[in-house]
Write a structure and sequence with these properties.
By secondary structure, the protein is an alpha/beta fold. The protein is built from 15 helices and eight strands. It has an eight-stranded parallel sheet, with helices on both faces. One of its GO terms (molecular function) is adenosine deaminase activity. This is Adenosine deaminase.
Amino acid sequence: MNYHALPKIDLHCHLDGSVRPETIIELAAQQGVALASTDVDVVREMMVAPESCTDLLEYLKRFDLPLSVMQQQDALERIAFEVYEDAALENVKYMEVRFGPLLHREQGLSIDGIIGSVVAGMKRAEKEHGIKGNIILSLLRHMPTDEIKDVIDVGAQYVGKGVAAFDLAGGEELGFCEKFIPFAQYAKEKGLNVTIHAGEQGEGQNVFDAITMLGAERVGHGIHIATHQQAFDLVHEKQVALETCPSSNVQTKAVESLDVHPIESFRKQGIPVTINTDNRTVSNTTMTKEVQKVIEQFNLSADDYAHIYRNSVEGAFTDAETKQWLMSQI
């Protein structure tokens, strides 16, 4: 099977976890940001998480370096363009990139300036490379909630023009959903779809809560419904797509190893699973690598892959015309 040539869809990719190391070095020089080294291999090593982290928090430390150069509009536009360009060059047809606007204000950028720059970078890549995409606005669960509505208000102005959804990300504690009920509801009222990181770190109850309390239409990771029957049944009944990220899940110890990842078991049981990168740089991966890993680990046929691809199309936060085009690719 020619994995590179397969049409692919990435619904779960973080902007700040997918920056080219070469770009970090160039932007740091332009912006006067001091780096520990300007050797691209050293910078790459600083950005890539170990194949086996002690936990999710060790993995998340890899975001500090890219964020240091993502505080200016031209940098955000460039990085968004490059993430979409890299994906397009490996035959990713559609991609939803998520990022936290509130993480990019250290030099005084407005929320509109931040979101507008990322959308502009994506639009440029769409024009130059034929890939299609949307942006997801991630709010961090550990940050104060007083500006969440401001982010939603600005994002709402871009609905149908490059912004598609509201997301909650960051470290996952049991029972986090209740606190965010009014914000998820507000996002929906403003026309945003909702996807929530949940069930990544052993808490299947959080998936149940994300769907019932927050109205999640998709779930980021969600793999720990395997140990929570109520959540499993709800995901199955409502056909909520799971944005699984195989390499990342192994790195963060969400699963012990790829061979025990539940993606194929879920697929056989009728759960709409999808394959995604999570963080192209931090996980040292591409969609081609992720697809190849899953196909080879679980001995999937071309029809099996087409099934997963169709799950991605159906779960995508995009219009009917784009979905029809994506279906025609497989």
